[in-house]
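tool=predict chain=A
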Amino acid sequence: MTSSAFVPGAPAVGYDRQGAGPLVVFLHGIGGNRSSWQVQCAALKNRFTTVAWDARGYGASDDYDGPLDFASFAADLARLLDHLNVEKAHLVGLSMGARILMDFYPHHADRVATLTLCDCFSGFEATLTPEKQQEFISLRQKPLLEGKSLADLAPALIASLVGPNCSDAAKAALHESILALHVESYLKTIAASVSFDRSNDMAAVDVPVQLIYGEHDRLTPPSIGEALLACLADARLDIIEDAGHLSNLEQPDRFNSVLAGFLDQHAGLADGPPTPE
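tool=predict ok
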């Protein structure tokens, strides 16, 4: 059974919860929301408590005033753990969600049992080629600033993200999440992503890390995962065959197998089950 609730405070942060056991928190990408993780949460609910949030300015969560700093996402994640009365959790993030975790870890290492970082870069300029930097901006920010709608944006963005054999169902799910974006908050997140850089902090991560990349991810190809693997003390890298940037949506069974194996190995490192305040 899935229950929905909010972390109180400003902004209020919405989340879905199901299952029982050690806590696993899922953080969606820049074009997603909590629904991006439905299949993963269902697959793990018999052994873990799963929580998938809507980041501030996404889904049912509140919008906010002023520009975005990734530290604000990290503060919201700490609030979520406090709200659930959990000191230490398994944390899973894809793309933007993984960047949030990279920002969270240096300040809250004692609250991290494991990290699963999927289809992500650790620094915009430090990791992406100039061509990929320009593509990132031109596909996401430029059309909206020119007055186009999310519906106008969606087809080209989806085509740039998914692998060549992505199912119609996965494309439809991604299309739905793009149409649900809050435009102003989305633009703020893009602006913050362009200046994001935690590359120099990755070598200090000393919890178990699972890296997951799609074989056909053109934005953050597996070579980025290989570079991260080389600088992490305790990490493993799995490449999801026949998947692009949204590896959990495109190949959920393969993704879930990798994730479940990693979390089962380290299940006891996290607290749980959580109880809201």
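Residues 130-145 form the longest helix (16 residues). The two ends are 20 Å apart (CA to CA).
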